[in-house]
Amino acid sequence: MNGPVAATAGTEPVQLSSPPPFRRDRLVHAWIGVKALSDAGDALWTIALAWTAVQTTTPAVAGLIVAAGTVPRAAVLLFGGVIADRSDARRVMIVCNVVRVGVLVAATIWVLATPPTVAVLLFAAIAFGVCDAFYEPSAGTIARQLVRTSDLPAYGAVSQTASRLGTMGGAAIGGVIVAYAGLAGSAAANAVTFTVVVAFIAVWLRPRFLLARAEKESALRGIAQGFRHLSAHPTTRTLVLALSGLNLAVGPAVGIGLALRAHDQGWGAPSVGLFEALLGLGAAIGAVSVAKWRPRREALAGFWALVVQGASIVALGFGPVWTVAAAAFIVGATAGYVSVLLSATFSATVDTAYLGRMGSITRLGDDCLMPLAMAGFGALASAAGVWVPFVLFGAAMMAVMTVPLRNRTFREMSLRQEAAAEVRD
Fold it and tell me: Residue-wise over 295-329: b if at least 16 C-beta within 10 A, else e?
């Protein structure tokens, strides 16, 4: 399991082997399937943890257990980014998944011997949060190591669609498994999925492109260097801020806003389920559409789609149930579309010696700012009316998008041109 020799620092990765076109790339297709299986296991485990927590303790403590992984993940995430920029991503991913398997096996054995306790559930949630903090920045660099720049949007479209389907299937199966096999059965099932991931990475997954590695320095100095890089590179900074704030407007609107609207209008809980289903369907269609009808200028199309999403968030606050359902579908479709395009642009344009650290900074938005955004949305709805936060959050997103849309770099950038430059080099 020896990692490849590090490339010298620079923006462009070193090509080790020539990958086939994405549509015929069996290795990448297999990796996407393995990732989807892992996402299904994660969803299964999340359902089992939440259900067991609700059955074991009070609602307040159950909520603490479910959220317990968020704080340590946020605290460690930047260190995970430093490691991702220094080390072999495969090795980091293998180690993290082996630790996850160990946690799940330990939880299975413990629960089989004695009823689940709050301490065991907290231990499992926190351990997974810490593992995520080290795993996700390294895993975020894998696409850049496997496919050509021109294939990044297609990779993102298929990968995100497969992950969503895996999550949906895992959540559906998770309820059945926890009902019949309890937490122990759910933990064992998820341990199997992580074992498959470890085996695939160790035996089959090999990089085709070698990324530049960061200099060896203290972790704190590496984090500071990442923020200095962010400050010195406006294009990267705009992308990081856009991806960091991508969910801060839409997350509260769909996470709490749709339930508030249904309650306020007396539509009932089934309407919320309908809205959520349309969001998921729209996201899947939006992601797949990139593979079929890819825009020539990916960043420009992505930022304009966020303007449409902002208008759709505003629309969620008004009208009868069918207009809200239509707006929910559009929010989902633009979310899937934008996520693929901007993630591909991010992977293709960020200096590869900083890719892990920039990825970890983008993930901090959800962990640190999302709770505040949720609370602010609810407070505005209570104080000024349910429609008010929809208007303010949606309008804010539309206003913020004027910044990248006025940026000449994003208006002219095309990953097809980036790919052509790679070939010339």
Answer: bebbbbbbbbbbbbbbbbbbbbbeeeeeebbbbbb
Q: How far apart are CA 134 and CA 125, in angstroms?
A: 15
Name the residue range of residue 142's domain: 14-213
pLDDT tens string 319-365: 898 999 999 999 989 988 988 888 888 888 888 888 888 888 888 77
Closest CA to 102 of 123, 74, 75: 123
Domain match, 228 and 244 both: yes
> What DSSP string describes 53-99?
HHHHS-HHHHHHHHHTTHHHHHHHHHHHHHHHHHS-HHHHHHHHHHH
Determine if the pTM surpasses 0.70. yes
CB atoms within 10 A of CB 219: 13
Single residue among 154, 184, 213 that ends a domain in this structure: 213
* 11 band by pLDDT with thresholds 50, 70 and 90: low
Q: Of the residues 178, 213, 248, which one is the last residue of a structural domain?
A: 213
Q: Do 181 and 278 fall into the same domain?
A: no
